Amino acid sequence: MCGIVGYFGKNEALPILIDGLKRLEYRGYDSSGVALLHQSKVLCFKAVGKIVELEKKISEDKSPHPPLLKHALDPEQGGAKIGIAHTRWATHGVPSEQNAHPHSDCSGKIWLVHNGIIENYQQIKKHLIEKGHIFKSETDTEALAHLIEDLYDGDLTEAVKKALKVITGTYGIVVFHADEPNKIIAAKKGSPLVVGLGENETIIASDVSAIMRYTKQAIYLDDGEMVEIDANGPRIFDSFNAEITKDISEIEWDINQAEKGGYPHFLIKEIFEQPETVMNSVRGRLVLEEGMAKLGGLDAVADKIRNIDRIIIVACGTARCAALVGEYMLEEYAGIPTEVDYAHEFRYKKQILNDKTAVIVMSQSGETADTLAAVKEAKEKGVLTLGIVNTVGSSIARETDAGIYNHVGPEISVASTKAFTSQISILSLLTLFMGRQRDMSLVTGQRIVNEIQALPDKIRKILEADGEIKKIAEKYSKATSFAFLGRKYNHPLAFEGAIKLKELSYIHAEGFAAGEMKHGPIAMIDENFPSFYFVPEDSVYEKNVSNMQEIKARAGKIIAVATEGDEKIKDIADDVIYIPKTLEMLTPILSAVPAQLFAYHMAVLKGLDVDKPRNLAKSVTVE
Ligand code: F6R
């Protein structure tokens, strides 16, 4: 959702801020803005729509700025060296220039960008209006700018500290004051901020993607911390105002991973990366001789895990579909009762937890507000929390007691693909780990290890069928509704396939457990309502075939994802996409790929913005 970039250093701030905003585009936004501080004067630009609109506003600027401010935009004059920038995803007030950040106070000297939500902004705003403050936007953020102004007494750091004590809610902020042009201030609570340490420059952002081009050294701020950045670099203070020293982390993600590398879209690049990303997720974690998974991130809690007798996995959207596959795996192979909860429902249920319950939290971004709230609830109840997270240093990664990173690099396209197959891969490792701690035999463990190791080549083989899948998409491109169907391990894939198709192509799609069709949904089937059916050769194959016959008998068209060599399926299905044979529990990792490619081609055929579908955000940081 919203993105923040702040710069203080020796270089021209504007190109770095704009580049940072572009790197954060994938998170989803509807307007953007930038404020530059130059010789105690401020220049601000805002635009609705894509970052190019903001760039246009800046390059076509005809305002009669005094010469000094003109220098702020002139690279030949060195340009401004301090600035803040923001991409906004509307929450309070429509997407408009007035509502876009940065926001300022009445004097126009204090400028602020903010992620998160200030819950008591209406009371603050009312109080400040009574005192004579004039507001220009509908946002919660503007209230904070005016509050800082109200509390300002010549020291921005002190005013920000005082203001943050008054507000409730969540924030990641970066702020400057034109009268104190030698520093910028940032603070965080419940919304991520990372400080990038360059050579004579500091870049602060809500996401490492905006930083990694300039430096690999980063400090992740924790809730309640504040940072003051000046020419000497950052000074960090804890919630008690004591100056603290924090560990510097190395950003492991590579800048090439955050670029398209010759593909027309990030989505297709990420789909094609899956042989490597599944390999990266399991690399160094499989021990064939022991039929076991080695999970360093769980070492500290391995004994606790041995005693766990119930698992709850919490996640949202696609991550939840992966969790549902995990439920089948953990119950069948580790013998541990497992249930999956929507993260956003977890807090509202009476949870019956004890010291033998583990809550597994799964999130690609590590910043999903609903999922983070579920972790906090679980911790409050004192149960063991384990994270399966892709983004190193993210809030969920840091909040959980222990965890396993996905290691798939940045997932830029809004629709999750490589993170999904990685999440199931990690759950298979966890199943091995917990299964071998219990009754799973060495032979079974070794068979799983061998099959996991063979997955990347099998995914490669499926990707070779991309051209055929594109043709199938062309054939069905006029359909307005789809059913996605599967049983047992591929039952969650029905949900995931439907999510992919609807979010990318805006075509109505619903996922059903295949056995449920005859209990109602089959009434919808006719020659214009096709089904996308996951029917690998597994323990429920015959049952699936019967359900397919029922659809066929009602003139329903079927696209089947079936196992290589299954010729008989062609008698029932209208189109078949083959996947190689693997262990039943691992089939979802393979069957996900044709569904992703199908959804991708359907969206491209409709000429849609594949990487940034409408109304969606990559990282959903509101509840
Ligand atoms: C769909 C998709 C979303 C996310 C969900 C959770 O393609 O990407 O459904 O899976 O918003 O996001 P994370 O995994 O970041 O918590």
UniProtKB/TrEMBL annotation:
Its EC number is 2.6.1.16. Coiled coil: none annotated. One of its GO terms (biological process) is amino sugar biosynthetic process. Residues 2-232 form the Glutamine amidotransferase type-2 domain. Residues 301-440, 472-613 form the SIS domain. It is found in: Cytoplasm. InterPro entries: GATase_2_dom, GFAT, GFAT_N, GlmS/AgaS_SIS, GlmS/FrlB_SIS, Ntn_hydrolases_N, SIS_dom, SIS_dom_sf. Catalyzes the first step in hexosamine metabolism, converting fructose-6P into glucosamine-6P using glutamine as a nitrogen source. Homodimer. This is Glutamine--fructose-6-phosphate aminotransferase [isomerizing]. It comes from Candidatus Falkowbacteria bacterium GW2011_GWF2_39_8.
